[in-house]
Amino acid sequence: MKHRPSPHNSPQSRAPLFEALAAYIKQPKVPFHTPGHKQGRGIDKAWRRLVGDAIFRMDLTVLPETDCLFHPTGVIKQAQALAAGAYQADKSYFLINGSTGGNLSMLMGVLFPGDKIIVPRHTHKSVISGLIMSGALPIYIHPEVNREWGLIMNVSPQAVEKALIKNPGARAVFVSSPTYHGICCDLGKIVKLSHLNDRIVMVDQAHGPHLLFHPALPVSAMEAGADICVESSHKIISGLTQASMLHVKGPNIDIRDLEEVLLLTQSTSPSYLLMTSLDLARRQMAMDGRELLEKSIALSVKLRSSINKIKGLYCLNPQDVKPFKLDPTKLIVFVDKLGLTGYQASRILNEKYNIQAEMADWDHVAFIFSIADGQSEADRLLRALKAMASSQYGRGPLQKLDIQFPSNYPAMSLTPREAFFSTYKMVKLKEAVGEISTEFFTVYPPGIPVIVPGERITHQAVEYLETMKRLGAILVGPQYGQPGRIRVVAK
């Protein structure tokens, strides 16, 4: 059930942490504690002139008035309780290490070494990192792939059901929904199937902090009955970068274990600016989220229609991803008919028209239309796309390349943890086919590993990485090794 806007006299109208910090900085306190800039007095003058003093005065530490994230008894406890109420959770936790920290915490807080978990192979790198740290054993399932658009969709309930039947000893099911492209799986069916088989359901909902707050949006993890989920409040809604939340619902999660792990995965000097942004983002969505999203969704739907009238461009429509659902706030614009790669189009939009895209791929560019965007921003994006298309149309379509993300994944030869801690040797990437990788190789964004520890490196994976690099993609791999080389298990 979607969240209904809270009345203005409800508890959701409060922002306890923000209110406490706002009251504190009005007091004539003399700080002899961290941070060393002492409420902004020691900050570089150029920075202070640019942003003012108040933001630095609120950059505080654990004090009687500001509470403690890891033993909350005051305003942080109240703020997290309000978040749980807004998000239909039993418990909610503020995260200051982003959803990466949340994924690590979910996996380490629920699973023991040797536990099996059903997990999509197209999941974010942080999930594989969580498997390495927890010692859990992945049972990879493959997402559906739309060959027409060259996009990874998501996992189907049928794939999850098949994995549940084949692996009766699996302890949990992990799902990522929405994807970076806004493609949502049928969470309701997946949760029902998993719970019928007594499996815990974890959801990486990093890209869906807004889903609960409007009836036109796909179902959220808590609505669907998931046991635990993480979401990035800095995506789509108004949290500061790196601010996320972890939500728990039902009796299947051991809260003591989870809270112990949160002590391991988060900084012991949490940012009060990040936590305050979470408090305020929750209040904003609880009170005004539906109205804000109504505007965003209406504008994005209209913008999608307008883009599809521009020669040489195509913006992905909901019917293109069926039976999956598409988050309307994500605009995926294909530019290959202009003879441009997504990387080239993104650079043109940035350098010539001052439009910054969220991400680019070889044949498309992705834009996020958030609660902050209005008619003016929609008009600017549309004008820029029209101008770019007008100047580029007629070059002929981009040469069709068979460079879809590798989907014929090899069988796991070692667990991610075993491979990560194996004795290794360095080899050239081109000569690594058939070897077992001990590290990740990822095209970023979106951060989905092409190569993960424990898998044999395939010719398809190497070819894909080399092609994407040639086209202009950012490859995140062995940053501290030698360029063009990769660590593999030493035989």
Automatic annotation (TrEMBL):
Keywords of this protein's UniProt record, alphabetized?
Answer: Decarboxylase, Lyase, Pyridoxal phosphate
SUPFAM superfamilies the UniProt entry points to: Ornithine decarboxylase C-terminal domain, PLP-dependent transferases
InterPro entries in the record: Orn/Lys/Arg_deCO2ase_major_dom (IPR000310), Orn_Lys_Arg_decarboxylase-I (IPR052357), Prn/Lys/Arg_de-COase_C (IPR008286), Prn/Lys/Arg_de-COase_C_sf (IPR036633), PyrdxlP-dep_Trfase (IPR015424), PyrdxlP-dep_Trfase_major (IPR015421)
Query: Quick check: keyword Ribosomal protein in the entry?
Result: no
Q: Pfam families annotated for this entry?
A: OKR_DC_1, OKR_DC_1_C
What cofactor(s) does the depicted protein rely on?
Answer: pyridoxal 5'-phosphate
Domain Orn/Lys/Arg decarboxylases family 1 pyridoxal-P attachment site: from-to ranges? 230-244
Read off the Gene3D superfamilies from this record. Answer: Orn/Lys/Arg decarboxylase, C-terminal domain, Type I PLP-dependent aspartate aminotransferase-like (Major domain)
> What GO MF annotations does this protein's record show?
carboxy-lyase activity
Instruction: Spell out the family assignment given in the record's similarity comment.
Output: Belongs to the Orn/Lys/Arg decarboxylase class-I family.
The name on file for this protein is Orn/Lys/Arg decarboxylases family 1 pyridoxal-P attachment site domain-containing protein
Organism listed in the record: Candidatus Edwardsbacteria bacterium GWF2_54_11
Organism classification, top ranks?
A: Bacteria, Candidatus Edwardsiibacteriota
